[in-house]
Amino acid sequence: MLLPLLILLPIGFAATNIYRTASADPGPMILAAIYIVMMLSAHFVLVASGNRGDPLLLPLVAAIGGVGLVMLNRLAPDLGTTSAFGLNMNVAETQLLWFAVGLLAMLTVAIGLRDDRFLRHYKYTWALAGIALLIFTFLFGTEVNGARLWIYLGPIGFQPTEFIKIVLVLFIAGYLAEHRALLRDASLRLGPIRVPPLPYLLPMLAIFVLVMLVVVVSKDLGTALLFFGIFLIMLFVATGRRSYVLIGLLLFLAGSFVASRLFEHVARRVDAWLDPFADPSGAGYQTVQALYAFGRGGLFGEGLGQSLLPTAGGRFFGVETDFIFAVIAEELGVIGACGLLALTMALVFRGLRVGILARDDFSAMLAVGLTVSLGLQTLIITAGIVKLIPLTGITFPFVSYGGSSLLASFIIVGLLLAISHRSAVADEREGRGP
Amino acid sequence: MTGEILRILLLVLQLAFLGLLYLILLAFVRSLLRDLRSAERAQLASQAGIGRLNVLESPDDEPPAGRAIALGPINSLGRNVNNTVFIDDDFVSAHPAMLTFRGRSWFVEDQGSTNGTYVNGHRIDRPVALSFGDELTIGRVRMRLER
After folding, report:
1. What is the DSSP letter of B131?
2. Total of domains in chain A
């Protein structure tokens, strides 16, 4: 499964360099080589350690990340370098470093997590740690593009919300697994509406509202949407009740409406979404440029290295992070963009399968929540770029440049591998085929 | 002239890149479909059970630790050999507990045993709904309810 990457990455790197230098020189391949070697060795370490987890997860991640690395390598000359620890590195080199860190974290989680009991039993501790981290970010974080998301420790900045996402899923999974039967079967009737038993829902709602409050106050709307979506889907999977989802969606719509009236920055986002062309060089600039990029890309794309976005007067920001999907659509066309989305879909499919095959409620809920977080994140950012929903800043998992996002996504894959390993071992013990 | 060649070369590379991307996708989709079909067959072949008890700890080795006991809708647990789940442990009464599947949930009820029935370490005094993954302790035998 990993072998086609051996050709895909060099082709991408070569096309980029040939266009840039206008000569038939394929350019240096060292980054592509390192990436492939890293993925292959991670795969072999997994196999050698006896991990019987889902064998398609890592190859899928490698394919998605490979497209991302080709794009970052193409964007690197336009973005300049950052220096850390006395090393000058461009975005592709930095990302490759984070790939290494992420893979190590994934292997540690996948191989080291033999028993999930400590994840399950300390759910309130996890929730508190997450909230503490959120409040810390809110108080001491650095504001970038109107959202307070970053904590800087010396030269390294990180986005705590990426890790809070995982912790939140851990908490919800632990809580739902413990109280699932009660939430599902017991209910109060208020006229025709079945209301969930409040005492059991209340602790979860309280922590959830607290998280949402801090996220909304720190103006990070994409993350708020992501957390809310994860919460609703996990609740639905645990109880099988459509009414919860319906009530949740209505609440969310009402909340968004109130927010767009109350907060100026939300109102600006919504206006820029409804009619970006009203102010094409101001509030609507990013959306309009992204839409033009899709138009220029057409079906097959302009070609690698030929996007106008990174150099468009130097005003367009986020080509390597939030808007990388617009660059991909411009250079690889709708076909390339859809291919990337289909790969992500396959990853989500495999993740949900891990949840279906899990032997206990906690593992199942955890797998579903983590998978949904990856899928929803992709959905929110791509839908935002194509003007399907209001644009909110969030990363494209495994594609966007960013250490925190990459590390968190790899930890998620590590957890999925650990869960599927346990169910595979249990199946084998009982002589049931995979 | 060289510009023309380069343009063609770039076009070829572009198409090769996209083609390869879809080849990778196709490979994944094929193995996903294969997996779905085999899962379908497996489900047809075996009637999916409603649950099983996985024995985690059993000092007297009856039932042996590590065994998974398939459950019917109504199960009695205890030291009497006529129980559906026979537990040979000195600390277990003859008929200490009933484990039943009602509606969509598992319930466990203590039948007035001396040493009690524990769910996740808490002694129960009324029928309790169980989730998959909950631990059931009767006497010195520790079991986990699984799908």
Report:
1. -
2. 1
